[in-house]
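user: can you give me the structure for this one chain? tokens are fine.
assistant: on it. calling the predictor now.
[tool input]
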Amino acid sequence: MNESPSNSNFDPELSSDDDSMTERYEPLPDVDSPELFLEETIDPIQDLAEYLWESHDESRHSELKEVVFNEADEDLDHIIGRRFSIYRCDALLGKGGMGRVYLAYHSQLGRPCALKISSPRKMPRAYTGWDRTLKEGRSAALLIHPNVVTVHAIGEYKGRQFIEMELVSGGSLKSILRKEGSLPLLKSLQLICGASKGLAFAHRHDILHRDIKPENILVCPLGIPKLADFGLARHISKPETLPEGQVIGTLPYLAPEVLQTGKHSRISDVYSLGVTLFFLLTGQLPYTGKNTEELAHHILTEPVPLLRDIDPQIPLEVSGAVARLMSKAPASRPQNGIAASHLLSSVLGQLRDVESILEEALGHDPSITWLRCGDKYRLMVRLPDGRKQTVFVESSDHRADQQLLMIYSTCCPAQSSFYEQALKMNAMLSHGALTIREIDGIAHFVMINTYPRGTADPEEVRKSVLEISEFSDRIEKMLTGIDFH
């Protein structure tokens, strides 16, 4: 191994030189696992950043002292408060195996950023790694998405390569867990679901991340998760350029097939996302070991631990989703970030009760009020002409992962004399459908629309409630000539 993988259950000082270990385990491919970034050195970042940036005078940028590098020992570098190209480096945010990240100020654009500067250590390997990083960084720069940290610029200055990135001041999921402890189940799901949307966008553009883990998911102050550090990313159309037998990534998050073949795929990214969610929900990694060989052996041979065996309070659908994401068989997992995002969104939606959906969709609309009536909700909608219409919202009786959110409003009793006209009206509808539903033991014509509950969009729900109420009111008058409902 060139470098040991970093995780809370692994002791990097334990070696695999013990004779019994070498007899029990086959040598593993070389795993290139960059040292984890340190926790943020300033907290909160934004508070200090605003003070520094407000005090900056762009016209005096050229008067700042230039950075001074020490190629033998980067701890002797003089960077903080100095000028690095068009940037002023204000504070160290963290460091890793291939570089350090600084809170920086872009003098020309007048904005904050995160600036990653390459390390001089292990010169030949470091430069090879950074050549790869710069190439793939150009691909990652194409990923403009709310759930992806944006790469703004790539370059070289004074012999050091750098990447300018969007500054996300909330910290990584790993640092948040260190500070706050375990997160609530819904919060964990929301964060990973957001990250999965970023991964889905990358996969749509044929880019593999190859190093998904809590350290590489950042959270902005508004709570939006952003997939970060595409330094190990690769465009699917480009061949692997690693030496034979070498594997890149972070060992506890690597899929079994990556350990076996060294090749990453969309499906292996999905596995890493599943391990990350497992860690957030339980506070522990699914597999541990005394050394890298034992850890890898467990990943390859042991069954996926069941979340409910660790915490029986975790809902069955959540446990099932994580088991699918982490399946030993690649074909049994969601085949890309898009499918993984759909799965997680569905599970998250199932855990939201109907009232929370209504609150999000209608909570700020004064024309709509609602009341819970057993398992369904009765909504009173005030129409533009002052009339009112009752709309019902409830979940279907399907199994949890197939439940529908049903939105419907009563038109009139389903008398046989209305059938022909009702069928003609149904053929003309562009939204929803006119159908027959039994209400209080009596068959009624109702206007209805349905959405998969797991992915119900609040804005779509709001529009549907308004349109269903107007259509049902209009159809009642057309069929009966009266306004009873």
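assistant: here you go. Confidence is low (pLDDT under 50) at residues 1-49, 122-127. The CA atoms of residues 109 and 155 lie 17 Å apart.
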